[in-house]
Request: fold
Amino acid sequence: MRDPELMKKVMKKAVSLGKKEIENGRVADYIPELAKARKDALGLCIVEADGAVHKVGDTNIPFSLQSISKVVSLCMALELHGLDTVFSHVGMEPSGEAFNSIVELDLQSNKPFNPFINSGAIAVESLIIDYRSFDDLLDFTRMLFLDPEITLNRQVYNSEMATCDRNRAIAYLLKSKNVITTNVDTSIELYTKMCSLNVTAESLANFGLVLALGGKDPRNGNRLLKAETVQTVKTIMLTCGMYDGSGQFAVEVGIPTKSGVGGGLLSVVDREMGIGVYGPSLDAKGNCIAGKAILRYLADKLNLHLFHE
Ligand code: GLU
Reply:
């Protein structure tokens, strides 16, 4: 366990640096319900392997998981089918394009570049749909986040379903290329429901810790995910977790992280800690702008870069 006083000091400073970035970003508004978020909200939670929990700011405000749900769905697909089958439907390369890009799927490839862009996540969802219901996935999410309170945010779900024509277009394109064979409407509904789960910075940190511990429950050591699933997911978080800003983030911060346009960041410090950030002001690529500054500072002060000296 790290010195609690030092943790408090470093985390407070990190959040104050993050706050300065908030005005440089924007709250997502392409899903109308997300535009209602408080732009200046900011919370940071770190959970250490021995159970120590450190919190600064708005760590208990519920917000929707959005793209971070792609990590959960990838875990489920890998648990069900294993690596070879999953990656015969979706690639494992950074796309260098925006999260909702359609062009490279149409022109360059017959399968989505990776499971963390929308096309890839919709393909992953279609691998789950015949085997698990939304309720099963909700239970799975509650188990991995150590949070029985996680529920579907109906307002966000309805708002996104009313405005997700682009995701539908992606799903039809996937179907035309035989990447998915499931019903487009059902696939989009499941994908959007997973994006609309309400979590907190604290529950994100819990999931980060489960991944940091190789898929084991920090409370009792019980295995929740296969080691191979966790190793794969963490690697793709490092290479593709921050959309088309993943390379720069990996160099500058070096902590496997997945962002969502709801303002969440899920981060994994291997074997040591899970980190959850909530801040709905986003940079141009859709990543929590304050969270990036926070994680960079934490990586520097606490030596959290994967390849630190
Ligand atoms: N539900 C969002 C969408 O499909 C998720 C995007 C994100 O968080 O990057 O547009």
User: Anything to note?
Assistant: The pocket of glutamic acid is lined by residues 66-67, 99-100, 118, 160, 167, 195, 260-261, 286 (CB under 6 Å). Residues 67-195 form a domain with the Beta-lactamase fold (CATH 3.40.710.10).
